[in-house]
Design a protein that fits this description.
This protein is globular. It has a six-stranded mixed β-sheet, with helices on both faces. A hairpin with a 5-residue loop joins strand 3 and strand 4 (about 55-60). The protein is of the alpha+beta class. It has helices spanning about 10, 75-85, 85-95, 115-120, 125-135, 140, 150-160, 160-170, 175-180, 185-190, 195-210, 235-245; strands at about 30-35, 40, 50, 55-60, 65-70, 100-105, 220, 225. The protein has a single domain, classed as Glutaredoxin (3-Layer(aba) Sandwich), CATH 3.40.30.
């Protein structure tokens, strides 16, 4: 089991720095919409699956354009993309069946482990909702982690490695955040004790850096090709429009 070190944890959480170089479940049922004057059409935003690679995909698996995002749940630039770009990505591109969208969590710092584990142990449709909640409320749930004292850090470092993620999450009050969103304490404990989940998140991180040449978050790939110097919606949208032509 690989853990990012918790020493100097406040320094690891540089909220403005997610575009800097990085260190080295079940399907939902498909629904259809009908009208009195049109043939039935598929709403592909209702088709959500967990992928073998460790992400969550929304949309038509045979879409012409496949958009992949690697993102950190603590990254402000990732939050901005989800606020500015996702309404169009899902409401226009994915819904029509022309584009599928996959989210893979990227561990940018030690704090990312807990929310990413909580996301990945949910059913696929619930995972997408939880990702949205983490981004929508990012400043409030991240703030307690930035106020860890030297004594907090010393206490966390003294714990066995397999206990550090949950202990950190509890110190930051993350249990209360997810409990308010329907995740009880027993599920919280289960998710944060998932060794296989930690290993998978580490593998996603390694693949993002080596295969996709990730240098910051968010990083986007269109049909398997990493988009260089594209970290926001303003730069990504023209790339998607070109690919969709």
């Amino acid at each position: 089991m690989r853990f990012l070190g918790l020493a100097g944890l406040a320094a690891l959480l540089v909220l403005g720095g997610c575009n800097r170089p990085a260190a080295t479940a079940p399907d939902t049922t498909t629904t259809t919409a009908t009208s009195a004057v049109a043939a039935p059409t598929q709403d592909w935003t209702q088709v959500i699956v967990a992928t073998p690679e460790g992400g969550f995909r929304m949309g038509n698996p045979d879409a012409k354009v496949k958009l992949l995002e690697f993102a950190s749940l603590t990254c402000p630039h990732c939050r901005e993309f989800h606020e500015q770009g996702m309404p169009t990505v899902t409401g226009t591109y994915v819904k029509s069946g022309k584009l599928s969208y996959e989210y893979r969590p990227f561990i940018l710092n030690g704090i990312d482990f807990a929310p990413s584990l909580l996301v990945r142990c949910q059913p696929a449709n619930v995972a997408f909702n939880l990702i949205g909640a983490f981004y929508e409320n990012q400043p409030s749930w991240v703030q307690p982690f930035t106020k860890l004292t030297p004594d907090d850090q010393k206490r966390l470092q003294a714990l066995p490695a397999e206990q550090q993620i949950k202990a950190l999450a509890l110190t930051g009050g993350l249990d209360a955040f997810v409990r308010a969103r329907g995740i009880p304490r027993a599920k919280f404990d289960q998710c944060l004790s998932d060794k296989a989940g930690v290993d998978k998140l580490s593998a996603i991180r390694d693949e993002a850096v080596t295969k996709y040449q990730l240098t910051g978050t968010p990083t986007f790939a269109i049909n398997g090709t990493t988009q260089t110097d594209v970290f926001n919606w303003a730069k990504l949208q023209p790339k998607l429009e070109t690919a969709l032509q």
